[in-house]
Amino acid sequence: MRKITMVTILGWLLISGAAWAAKGFHYVAKTETTGTQMKQPDTMIVEGWVEGANAKIAFTEVGAANPFLGEGKYLLTNDGGETMYLVDPEENTHAKFDLSQLLGVAGAVMDSGMFNMDVTNHVAEELDSSAGPKMLGYDTRYRKYRTAYDLEVKIMGMKRADHFVLDHEIWSVDSLQAAGFQAWMRPRKTGFDAVDKLIEGEIGKVKGFPFKTVTVTTTEGKKKDRTTTTTSTTEVSEFEESNIDDAIFRLNPDSREIQLFDLEGMEAAENPEEPEEEKGGFLKRLKKVGKGDG
To answer: Is the dihedral of CA 133, 50, 181, 55 positive or negative?
Structure first.
């Protein structure tokens, strides 16, 4: 009887232990961006933990191109990257990390009448899919995709037209299927819905966790003989299976939620005594200028 009791207790311990220390993965990845118009490379290093749909990505080194991220801050997701929060442990705050907020700002600027963008002739295609080399002891699959589109920008009467070509190369470990891997190591969005849908339609087919991605963006001016190239390379340098404490995927209950981008709220700080009918923030002022009222 005593033996059965001990076995039962051991079982309880194992079950309860699974709630706080689940099997997961730990990795370190480095992103380096270079370009014909950049004076020096921009570097970012992250440390990531993944378990199922949970992921934490901590920024250990952040270049000048991403100042709002900040060293010491980290991203959290519990649904494979669909919802992400940028956490600042020093300030004990968190903010929803959503590209659509930035795109919403761009849309509001376009609504002001000062700025307009038109994307046409967008195409995407797969150029290669073959066995890749072993990386960190894992078999990889190599894939290459190309996306191209024309972009015309009009700013206060001035017009500029460019042709963009994005070449994506991906070396992925298809056997690593945890949803949390989707939170990082994927080509970033362009901000143009039609183009992003094309990219997702092709790159969305990639399964598993990319150990390396290379994106080369070439921009060709249509009116002048100008060509610029930007190359962004992200590669995993360390990867291991690890028992992970579930607590690292939870927000501090005392953390204060803030808005990452709050342009309308800027008005109160800039003009606290402004009459109510004149308030409306940065976006309202843009619309006034666009209509010739400012």
So the answer is: negative
pLDDT along the chain (294 residues), means of 10: 44 42 88 90 94 96 80 93 92 84 52 69 90 97 92 81 92 93 70 67 78 94 82 96 94 92 48 46 44 44
For residues 78 and 51, is the Cβ–Cβ distance under 8 A?
A: no
- Enumerate the domain spans of the chain: 23-261
CA distance 32 to 34: 7
Q: Look-up: residue for tokens 């249509």? A: 222
Neighbour tally for 214: CB within 10 Å = 16
DSSP string covering 223-268: SS--EEEEEEEEEEEEEEEEEEEGGGGS--TTPEEE-S--TTTHHH
The whole-number pLDDT of residue 230 equals 95
CB 246 within 8 A of CB 19: yes
Rounded Cα–Cα distance for residues 63 and 111 (Å) = 32
Both tokens of 234, joined, read: 């992200």
10 Å CB burial of residue 46 (0-12, 13-18, 19+) is buried
Any residues with CB less than 8 A from the CB of 116 and at least 6 apart, and which?
110, 153, 154
pLDDT at 42: 92
Who's near 12: CB < 8 A, 6+ residues apart?
none
pLDDT for the residue 13: 38
